[in-house]
Request: fold
Amino acid sequence: MAREIGWPYKREFECHRCGNCCRGEGFVAVTEGEIDNAARFLGIPVSEFLREYCQQTKSGSWEVISQGDALMSCIFLFEEKGLFGCRIHGAKPDQCRGFPFDWRPRDAEEYCAGLRALAGLGKPKRQTMSRSLDRKIAKDNREE
Ligand code: SF4
Ligand code: SF4
Reply:
């Protein structure tokens, strides 16, 4: 029987490196401190980090861009032997670090392989955090 995922299970959670939480519509917000940390982690100047990996919002804040692929993968997401990882893992933004326990959307158990395993739910039903994008990809695949 599936069980509810909550704080009591935090220690049991294991990231399956499916990468699904790093894909979808919407962008990861980064503060000035997080930008400094990530640029230092990559060994590049802040100006280069902003130019290569970020975009500025109308309000002047910064967010991490996507790779521009169909799944809208974060620019820092990489794949190695079927497992996905973050190129700035050692300095990733709080927003990323907090998922799935400090925060998570209500539908996170549809795409997070780790949460699904914990709840005995089997493989993820989706590939991204955006339900609308997953629907579009499924529709496109059916039409191909
Ligand atoms: S910065 Fe790293 S952890 Fe955050 S969305 Fe991008 S790849 Fe995922
Ligand atoms: S969706 Fe869950 S299991 Fe997949 S990479 Fe993110 S935290 Fe790990």
Notes: The mean pLDDT is 92. Residues 23 and 73 are 4 Å apart (CA to CA). Residues 7-143 form one domain.
